[in-house]
Amino acid sequence: MKILFRVDSSTQIGTGHLMRCLTLAAEAKKREWDVCFVIRDASQKVLNFIKSYGFLVKPVTTTPKTQIEKKNDNNYRNWLAVGQETDAVETLEEVCKFKANWVVVDHYTLDATWHKLVMQECISMLVIDDLGNRKIHSDLLLDHNLSANVGKYADLVSANCKLLLGLKFALLRDDFRILRKRSLQRRTNTKVEKILITMGGVDIENYTLSVLRELSKNSFAKKCKFTVIVGNLYPHLDDLKDFVFSSKLKIRILSDVMNMAEILSNADLCIGAAGSSAWERCYLGLPSITLAIADNQIEIAQSLNDNNMALFSNLSDLQNDFEKFFHYSRKDLIQNMTASMLSACDGLGALRVLDNLEK
Fold first, then answer.
1. What is the 3-state secondary structure (H, E, C) of 184-211?
2. In which element (H, E) is residue 357 found?
């Protein structure tokens, strides 16, 4: 079996799409599948990161001849520097060279127009999505979010498309499964001392620093130890280091971590973005305060809050929500939150997705 991933990662797009593809790719590699990534206009850091997993990478570069004019806004259509037709042709070239059995595409810009062009070569296709905002033409569609439902895609997918929906299909690496028991043992002690802050691989708006500034005003925070995780595309590292140097809080900064499961399992509380890492926190039963740092994260954060799996907060309410984990009622808050998370996610999602590809 040969599986080719079409995904992009940049300061505008973030790293979440790439990370969930890498998770699925790692499981495919264990089944001795050949894996290839096609990625457009990626930085050398991103290319090296993919290669560090041992995967073949085929970078595609936009030329002045193929580049299209993009509007200066955050619309998902601006994530692609070329037209869908051009991208499909260039991707197909790599698909044919690689002789892929499956193409997995995780890209908000690409819709049924792109999917149909690539599938003309009789390639089987899996689309990973969570927006439900465009037509999709594929054999399988994966939306591993808590709020995913059939109605969301009722008028968007092709007639024979099979839907893989919900946390049953959450893409989690096997190192999380290994550390789950240890993480759950930690939840029996409801004392909150070790705080993890993780706002995604890019955090272009620098929520990381804004969170720290808010917590520096809090008396409970001064008794805690903070671990801050940033990605290799985080553009505000110097400002963050300056703050840490002058702050009275106990803070350590980690960049480009490869042991996320271990770090999460050792934390007592996480303040994090409502991206794909939210499901990692759920699986490990880690109590969390969740912020939506992008429009597509609002639904995720709200569903976590509604299902008692995290507190949906913002910078204005952060101090108040943070203090809830230090009041006398924190034991019930933490235990109830952990119980809700554990009942929702069993960590076998990537295996189920690959089983469907094999079928």
1. HHHCCCCCCCEEEEECCCCCCCCHHHHH
2. helix 349-358
Pairing of β 162-165 and β 194-198: unpaired
Q: Which residues pair with 142 in a beta bridge?
A: 128, 164
Of the residues 165, 191, 212, which one is the last residue of a structural domain?
Answer: 165
- Residues 141, 180, single domain; the answer is no
Cβ count near 28 (within 10 Å) = 24
> Which residues are within 8 A (CB) of 47 and not within 5 positions of it... i.e. 6 or more apart?
39, 57, 59
CB 208 within 8 A of CB 240: yes
Same domain, 18 and 160: yes
59 domain-assigned: yes
- Asked if 60 and 93 touch (Cβ cutoff 8 Å), the reply is no
Q: What is the CATH number of the domain that holds 157?
A: 3.40.50.11190
Beta bridge partners of 240: none
d(CA 54, CA 38): 14
Residue 140: helix, strand or coil by DSSP?
Answer: strand
Residues 333, 285, single domain; the answer is yes
CB 137 within 8 A of CB 119: yes
Structurally, the chain folds into a number of domains equal to 2
Query: Is residue 357 in some structural domain?
Result: no
> Residue 61 belongs to what domain range?
2-165
Report how far residue 200's alpha carbon sits from residue 16's, in angstroms, rounded to the nearest whole number.
7
CA–CA distance, 163 with 143 (Å, rounded to integer): 8
Alpha helices in 199-329 (DSSP H): 207-215, 237-246, 260-265, 277-283, 298-306, 318-323
Closest Cα partner for 268 from 203, 221, 217, 317? 221
Local confidence pLDDT in tens for the 359 residues of the chain: 999 999 999 988 989 999 999 999 999 999 999 999 999 999 999 999 999 999 999 999 999 888 887 665 557 777 899 999 999 999 999 999 999 999 999 999 999 999 999 998 878 999 999 999 999 999 999 999 988 999 999 999 988 999 999 999 999 988 999 999 999 999 888 889 999 999 988 999 999 999 999 999 999 999 999 999 998 889 999 999 999 999 999 999 999 888 999 999 999 999 999 988 899 999 999 999 999 998 889 999 999 999 999 999 999 999 999 999 999 888 999 999 999 998 888 899 999 999 999 98
